[in-house]
Amino acid sequence: MYLILGFGETGVSFARYLTRRGQPFCVMDSRPNPPGMSLFKTWRKEDLFFGNFDTSALKKIKKVLVSPGIEFKNKVLEEARRMGIPIQTDIELFLEETNTKTILVTGTNGKTTVVSMIGHLLSIINGNDEVICSGNIGKPVLDTIEENNSFSVIEVSSFHLEHSKRISSDISVLLNIQPDHLDRHVTLEEYSLIKQKIFMNTKIGITGVKNLKEDKTHILNFKELLRPIEEEILSLVNPEWPSHEVNNVKAAVSVFIAIETMLGKLDINNLRKSDLNPLIKNISFKAFKRPSHRFEVLGILKGITFINDSKSTNVFSLITALDSTRKKFDKRKVILICGGVSKNQDFLTIPKTSLEVVKSIFIFGKDKQTIYKALNKKVPCFLTANIEEALHEAKSLSRDNDVILFSPACSSTDMFTSYEERGDKFKELLGFR
């Protein structure tokens, strides 16, 4: 008997996977009526443990399948470890069984975009049926396990990595590490070590992080790797994109080079410009559509430019958005809307240079008081009840050529089910949906 711990989107994919294989399972969730229950027609009452975490259920369990949202120190997991019961994530289960070439991508920011970019490049070169993007990007990995494809590009979160013990991949990518999820991972060092687990048993590692805990020869820095063709890489970046997309393009191109190395066409440890130039000619991002909610310039209304950056769930992503706004719109003044669940982040770390473009800040959400105290002495801040009021007040204060930037720097779980729903609400209020 398997135990599915946490019945959100991942839990549902676990249930589908086990049902297809005729394996018995039970489900546990702290919520009395978790989402997804209606997708399965028949449930035995004795197989449902809802409303709390009950360690007594472990007596008949041979393996726990854990959803990423479950805390590492959850009492059921701690008891399972004490009893010697294996604990596994959906990523681990997929990697054990798949016959595809696997590319894992993690990092504090840019994961979804880079996964999409890699999928785009591989689709151009190998055909649309050859690549599937999954994981945090939307489709659970176990829902793709029986699909016939050559490459699986998987977005992996720190929550997945925290629970995982056995990960193997053909290529793994760690884009960056900045403070995030410190309400769960406690310290930046712990968070960093968890992120670096992406390199376990990988054939080729690619990173944008300079100082990794361990110096491994099979881990290459994509900035150094592509230095010989820096100008050619910059020419691939759409001038309409925010400036921070340059590193995302570099990461995606580096993965493509790693694949060519795996196929014996290149030596990734001894690359020359003459090796790379022919390769770049096969690469194009002209048809690539950036994912929604990532510094999404919606348009201009009554002289005001509106940007939806709802994907911003940490302070570093807000800094990146502010810096990109300064570069893209020159000296236009920014009215910032932010707030939500701050995850114990320190908003005092936002550099003065990044805040110089900000005229005022409207803050909403669970931790608005904390954010207000951190920023009000640097920029005029205003507390609002919700996103509707924040946008209304921001528009009232705006003048011609201003930019209203919606970059929350926080999790959305206090008021929305996801950053997508939050961003869609922002667009709906402006009439862009």
Please characterize this protein's 3D structure.
This protein is of the alpha/beta class and 433 residues long. Helix content is 35%, strand content 18%. The protein is built from 16 helices and 17 strands. It has helices at 9-20, 75-83, 90-97, 111-126, 158-163, 182-185, 188-195, 222-225, 230-236, 245-262, 273-280, 315-329, 352-355, 368-375, 387-397, 419-430; strands at 2-5, 25-29, 48-50, 63-66, 87-88, 101-106, 131-135, 151-155, 169-174, 202-207, 219-221, 296-301, 304-308, 334-338, 358-363, 381-383, 403-406. It has a six-stranded parallel sheet. A six-stranded mixed sheet has the order 12-13-17-14-15-16, sandwiched between helices. Strands 3-2-1-4-5 form a five-stranded parallel sheet. Helix 13 (352-355) links the parallel strand 14 and strand 15 (358-363). The chain is globular and about 65 Å long. The termini are far apart.
Concise summary:
With 433 residues, this protein is α/β, with parallel strands linked by helices. The protein is 35% helix and 18% strand.
Question: What is the chains' assembly state?
Answer: single chain
**What's the helix count?**
16
Low-confidence stretches: none
From the N-terminal CA to the C-terminal CA, the straight-line distance is 46 Å
The dominant shape is globular
The order of strands across the largest sheet is 7-8-6-9-10-11
Q: Class by helix and strand content?
A: alpha/beta
Radius of gyration: 23 Å
Strand composition percent: 15-25%
Biggest beta sheet attributes: 6 strands, parallel
Count all strands and give the number: 17
Q: Helicity level, as a percent range?
A: 25-40%
Mean pLDDT: 89
